[in-house]
Design brief:
- By secondary structure, the protein is an alpha+beta fold.
- The chain is built from seven helices and ten strands.
- The strands form two sheets. Strands 1, 4, 5, 6, 7, 8, 9 and 10 form an eight-stranded antiparallel beta sheet that branches. Strands 2-3 form a two-stranded antiparallel ribbon.
- A hairpin with a 2-residue loop joins strand 2 and strand 3.
- Helix 3 (48-59) crosses helix 4.
- The longest helix is centred in the N-terminal third of the chain and has 12 residues, at 48-59.
- The protein is globular.
């Protein structure tokens, strides 16, 4: 059978990870003190790391603060820099919220094996281009296609583009992957599914 977009469906190891967009609701932004940081629209473009963390918290069945609360917590901890969210500080924030995490270098070829343990946050370039750019955007990798040399990797991307895209070949992901990610202690074992959503 063929999936929307032309992918052939196979068996996948997959973690259940709910989607969270990085677009911040202006009312939520005002209600939780975000206006002290600047406009909600501006921070929506920078909120990928906190949206990814929110997805991980929900996947690990931990209370997930609102996106605005996570952004303000992260900024207060010094986790945001001119270059974006600092992985070690995001890992520390995740740990403080009940999900033990670590920022580390993981080769692209090792990502499927790591996904046997838990979903992870990977640093990629938005839309996975093959033009030499690496990193700058954070997505949640949540599963992989079993038994393939170049498996489909299932992901949750909090950007607008990510609302319509949820899988990419490992070889294409590797083209824009920085080699850095945030890994998490096993929480809920992945399932094997024929038709992951």
């Amino acid at each position: 059978m063929t999936h929307k977009g032309g992918w052939v469906k196979g068996a996948f190891r997959v973690h259940s990870v709910p989607m969270c967009r990085q677009r911040i609701d202006p009312r939520e932004w005002r209600a939780h003190g975000g206006t002290d940081l600047g406009p909600a629209a501006e921070w929506s473009d920078r909120a990928c790391g906190m949206a990814a963390l929110r997805m991980i918290l929900a996947a690990c069945r931990q209370p997930a603060p609102s996106l605005t609360e996570l952004v303000t917590m992260g900024v207060a901890r010094g986790a945001y820099s001119e270059r974006g969210w600092l992985h070690a500080d995001l890992a520390d924030l995740a740990t403080s919220l009940g999900v033990p995490a670590q920022a580390e270098a993981v080769p692209a070829g090792d990502l499927p094996g790591r996904l046997d343990q838990a979903p992870l946050i990977a640093s990629v370039t938005c839309e996975f281009p093959a033009d030499g750019r690496r990193g700058g955007h954070l997505v949640v990798l949540r599963g992989y296609e079993i038994g393939h040399d170049d498996p489909l990797i299932l992901f949750r991307d909090p950007s607008g583009w990510g609302q319509d895209h949820d899988r990419v070949r490992l070889s294409r992901l590797a083209e824009s992957y920085s080699g850095r990610c945030i890994t998490f202690k096993p929480a809920v074992p992945p399932a094997t599914e024929e038709h992951p959503s």
